[in-house]
Structures are given as structure tokens and as C-alpha cells.
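okkk here we go again. third time trying to get the zinc ion bound version out, last two times i messed up the smiles copy paste (missing a bracket lol). double checked this time i swear
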Amino acid sequence: MIKIVLTLVIVVLALMFWFGKGRRSGNASRTPTPPRALTMVSCAHCGLNLPQPEAVEGEGGRHYCSAEHRRLGPGAGAGG
Ligand SMILES: [Zn+2]
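finally!!
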């Protein structure tokens, strides 16, 4: 009789271990984002190069290094 109980315990433990392992390896909800190349843009006013996420977007798809330069608009030579 004790053998049946022991077998059950071993089976339950094995299942818990197996499912626990499967959950860990199968869980892909938190994958670290791979480093991607930043798109560099230049300020339409002063020509400063900066990453696009840090740039301030202005009219006509132009990018500026700051809100101040966006307010001032494109610099000389842009012709707009
Ligand atoms: Zn600028």
C-alpha cells in the first residue's frame, strides 16, 4: 500500500517540476528589447545632429534640437 502512495508522490513531484520548468522556458512576456540603431536627425535650425527620439518634431516633418529652435523655425539655407 505504501508503494502506491510513494508512486503518487513521485508522479506529483515530477509533474510539478516539469510544469514549472515549462512555464519558465515558455514564458516570453518579458523579453529584453534588442539594441537597435538610433536614427540620427539634424536640427533644421542649427544643424545639430541628435537621435530622433530626442528631437522635437516640427512642421513639414522637420526636426529640431529643442522647442526653442522649433519656434525659431528653419535656419538660413533651408529655403522654405
Ligand atoms: Zn537646433
